[in-house]
Amino acid sequence: MLGLLGIIILNTRKISDNVKENIGFQIILNDNAKEVEIQHLTKTLDASDYVKSTEFINKDEAAKRLQEDLGEDFINFLGYNPLLSSINVHLKAEYANADSLTWIEKELLTSKLVKEVIYQKSLVSMINENVNKISFVILIFSGLLMLIALALINNTIRLSIYSKRFIIKTMQLVGATQGFIRRPFVLNGIKHGIYGALIAIGMLMTVLYFAQKQLPELIELQDSKMLATLFGLVIVLGIIISGISTSLAVRKYLRLKSDDLYY
C-alpha cells in the first residue's frame, strides 16, 4: 500500500507538471523583424531557464492554419495577409504561473522585435488553482491511507508477538536479558519486512506493466530513477516499521507480570 501511495504521488506530480507545461504564450513579432534577428531571439528563448520549448510560425504558415480553421481563403478576400509572424512558447512547470508570466512579458516587450505577448491570464490562474486543490486533496487522501497502512502493519505484528507472549515470559523467567530476548524477534520482524517489501515491489511492477499495456500514455509519466528510489524506500520502510513495531510489542510483554499475560 505504501508503494502504491508513492506511485500515486509521483504520477500526480508528473501529471501536474505536464498540465502546467501545456501553459504557454504567443510572441507576436513586428512585421519588419529580420530572419536573422528572429533566429537569435528564438535561440535566446530556448536557452532561457523558463522555456520548455518554442515554435516559430511565419506569417504564411499562420495564414495557412487560420484558413484551415475558418474553411475560407480570407487572403483572397482581403487582398493581403494581415497576420504577423509569431513564436509559440511553452513554459517549464515551475514558471507556469501568473507572476512569472508577468515579468517574462515585461522582459520580452523590451525587445524591438516583439510587438505583443499574448496569453490568457485568467486561464493560467484557474489551472494553477485547480492543480493545487487536486494536489492537496490527493496529499490528504494519501496521508490517511498511510496511517491506515501503518496501523494494519503494526496490528499484524502485535498479534504475531501476542501469540508468543508466553515464550517471551518463559525466557525472561529463566534469566535471559531483555536484549537477548528481543533480538531474534526483531531480526525475524526485519526479515519479514524485507520479504513483504519485495513482494509489494513485485506486485507494483506487475500492476504497472499491465497498466502501461492498457494505457501506453502512462509510459511517458514513468521515471526509472524515481521508481528505483521509491522501491528502495519501500524496502527501507519495511525494515524500519517492522523492526520498531516488533521491538515495541516485545517490550510490552517483557514488562507485563505473568498473571497479566492471560488477559
How would you sum up this structure, described in words?
The protein has helices spanning 2-21, 35-46, 59-70, 74-78, 98-108, 121-162, 165-173, 178-214, 218-221, 224-255, and strands at 24-29, 51-57, 86-91, 114-118. It has 263 residues and is α+β, with helices and mostly antiparallel strands. It has 2 domains: 24-118, Alpha-Beta Plaits (2-Layer Sandwich); 127-262, no CATH class. Strands 2-3-1-4 form a 4-stranded antiparallel beta sheet. Helix 1 runs antiparallel to helix 6 (121-162) and helix 8 (178-214) packs antiparallel against helix 10 (224-255). The longest helix is centred in the middle third of the chain and has 42 residues, at 121-162. The relative contact order is 0.13. The mean pLDDT is 82.
How many strands appear in the DSSP assignment? Answer: 4
Shape descriptor reads rod-shaped
Low-confidence stretches: none
Q: Kindly report the spatial arrangement of strands forming the biggest sheet.
A: 2-3-1-4
- In percent, how much strand structure appears in the residues? 5-15%
Q: Whole-Å distance between the termini?
A: 32 Å
Biggest sheet architecture: 4 strands, antiparallel
Q: Helical region count? A: 10
Which radius of gyration do the C-alpha atoms yield? Answer: 30 Å
Averaging pLDDT over every residue, what do you get? 82
Task: Quickly list its features.
rod-shaped; Alpha-Beta Plaits; single chain; 2 domains; alpha+beta; 263 residues; 4-stranded antiparallel beta sheet
